[in-house]
Amino acid sequence: MPICPECESALDFDEEDVDEGDVVVCDECGTEFEIVATDPLELSKVEEDYEDEDEEPKDEDEE
Predict the structure, then answer these.
(1) Can the peptide bond before residue 40 be classed as cis, meaning omega within 30 degrees of 0?
(2) Is the per-residue pLDDT at 60 higher than 80?
(3) DSSP for 8-59?
(4) Residues 6+ apart with CB under 8 A from 61
(5) Is the peptide bond before 5 cis (omega within 30 degrees of 0)?
(6) DSSP code at position 6
(7) CA angle 56, 26, 50 (to 5 degrees)
(8) Predicted model pTM
(9) C-alpha to C-alpha distance for 4 and 62, rounded to whole angstroms
(10) Counting Cβ atoms within 10 Å, is residue 25 exposed (0-12), middle (13-18) or buried (19+)?
(11) How far apart are CA 34 and CA 26, in angstroms?
(12) Long-range contacts of range 32-39, CB-CB < 8 Å, 24 or more positions apart?
């Protein structure tokens, strides 16, 4: 079972059930991680201004 890099708690997902680009959340500390590699498993902390792929990009030039 994968371990949260932030709080070192066990992350509740099976490494074989995720793909690159998936986002997982630590149940203990609430930190979001993106799966950047699956073999070996590599997680990257999602920044607060992270936009989901399904969301439309914000147009900052609009007033």
Answers:
(1) yes
(2) no
(3) -PBPSS-GGG--TT-EEE-TTT--EEEEEEETTEEEEEPPTT---TTSPPP-
(4) none
(5) no
(6) T
(7) 20
(8) 0.70
(9) 38
(10) middle
(11) 11
(12) 33/4, 33/5
Joined together, the tokens standing for residue 18 give: 């995720």
Q: Which amino acid is at 25?
A: V
Say if CB 31 and CB 20 are below 8 A apart.
no
Residue-wise pLDDT for 21-53, tens only, equals 999 999 999 999 999 999 999 999 998 765 555
The total of other beta-carbon atoms located within 10 Å of residue 50's CB is 11
Q: Measure CA of the first residue to CA of the last residue in the chain; give whole Å.
A: 47
Gyration radius of the chain over CA positions: 14
What would the mean pLDDT of 2-28 be, rounded to a whole number? 94
